[in-house]
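Key result, reporting period 2: structure in, sequence out.
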């Protein structure tokens, strides 16, 4: 198997995790704003996943999980109106959010297991 064939037999995606600590009295407001934005984000080109979660241990710790098919589509999203509104909603946070990017490769067919 050639190097290129080996690479093509893997599925590639970019995972983005945004970790947030919200002020208790602003949790509902921020949650509603993010929930609304995730619907729009899911319809953007290249978005494979966009989930909004709350920590089991701390109800004021929130997470936004996104998966993108290409860096180009992710960059388009990061420049979008949806993301600009999300950054504006971050004013409700108790501390600055943390955003992490991961490049993920896994063998084709593993998603079925």
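The corresponding designed sequence is given below.
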């Amino acid at each position: 198997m050639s190097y290129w064939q080996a690479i093509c037999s893997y599925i590639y995606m970019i995972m983005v995790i945004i970790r947030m600590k919200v002020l208790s009295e602003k949790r509902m407001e921020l949650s509603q704003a993010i929930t609304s934005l995730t619907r729009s984000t899911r319809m953007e080109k290249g978005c494979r996943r966009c989930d909004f979660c709350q920590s089991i241990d701390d109800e004021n710790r929130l997470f936004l999980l996104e998966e993108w098919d290409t860096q180009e589509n992710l960059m388009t999203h990061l420049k979008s109106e949806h993301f600009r509104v999300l950054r504006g909603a971050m004013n409700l946070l108790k501390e600055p959010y943390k955003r992490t990017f991961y490049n993920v490769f896994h063998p084709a067919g593993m998603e079925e297991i």
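The first strand starts at residue 10 and ends at 21. The mean pLDDT is 85. This case is discussed further under Risks and Mitigation.
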